Q: What sequence folds into this?
């Protein structure tokens, strides 16, 4: 009896999650060919891919050494709550904070005068927002991955005379392969779908700072519901691909672990 109730609960929750998405897919797929041919959608896809790939590379380059340092640091329990703060904040709050700090009320004027760097209402602002909200997530994934490593292999490598760099390159990195791939996939997927922080910093100017999430909002606001649904389907298909890839990687990782 109890088992049947659990099956019923799982079915109801699955329907609750899947049914709206299936309806969106059904309505949006019919408009997909038209959307793909739209110059606006092509621009949004190109800019989304460009900014999300660059911001993911930046996140990984910063997260890897920070995670390695925190893993071996005695102060990590004091530092990590501050590093992870953007994970707990609504993304629109992160966007407001970035807008203030990198705008003319903060260091924006200084950066623009001396380094010709402008973040507000620019492509750079999109990447800034994506890095800000996703860097703590990437650090967290890598720290968890490092904590799950088999310490005995690293210890044996050190006792056999391997330097710290050799140990990291030949032992730690291969053991972290699945975690690194998963971090790249999930960080890129989150960057691609980022909306709240991006719209506060970079705005939503058509054919200038228009990425896929802001393009949905722009088209909904002008009554272009069909185009908005088609763009949403594009994002959903990308997210589903990332989710399936992530599950495939970790299923293989769990099988290897056995």
A:
């Amino acid at each position: 009896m109890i088992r049947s109730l659990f099956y019923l609960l799982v079915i109801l929750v699955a329907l609750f999650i899947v049914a709206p998405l299936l309806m969106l897919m059904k309505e949006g797929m019919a408009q997909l060919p038209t959307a793909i041919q739209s110059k606006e959608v092509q621009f949004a896809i190109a800019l989304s891919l460009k900014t999300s790939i660059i911001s993911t590379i930046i996140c990984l380059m910063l997260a890897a050494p920070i995670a390695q340092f925190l893993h071996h640091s005695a102060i990590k329990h004091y530092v990590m709550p501050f590093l992870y703060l953007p994970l707990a904040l609504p993304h629109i709050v992160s966007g407001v904070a970035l807008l203030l700090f990198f705008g003319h009320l903060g260091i924006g004027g200084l950066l623009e005068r001396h380094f010709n760097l402008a973040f507000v209402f620019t492509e750079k602002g999109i990447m800034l927002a994506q890095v800000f909200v996703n860097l703590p997530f990437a650090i967290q994934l890598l720290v968890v991955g490092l904590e799950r490593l088999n310490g005995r292999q690293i210890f044996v490598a050190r006792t056999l005379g391997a330097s710290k760099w050799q140990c990291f390159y030949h032992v730690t990195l291969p053991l972290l392969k699945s975690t690194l791939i998963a971090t790249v996939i999930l960080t890129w997927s989150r960057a691609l779908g980022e909306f709240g922080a991006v719209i506060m910093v970079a705005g939503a100017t058509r054919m200038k700072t228009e990425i896929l999430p802001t393009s949905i909002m722009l088209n909904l606001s002008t009554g272009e519901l069909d185009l908005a649904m088609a763009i949403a389907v594009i994002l959903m298909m990308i997210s589903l691909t990332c989710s399936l890839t992530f599950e495939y990687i970790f299923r293989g990782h769990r099988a290897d672990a056995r």
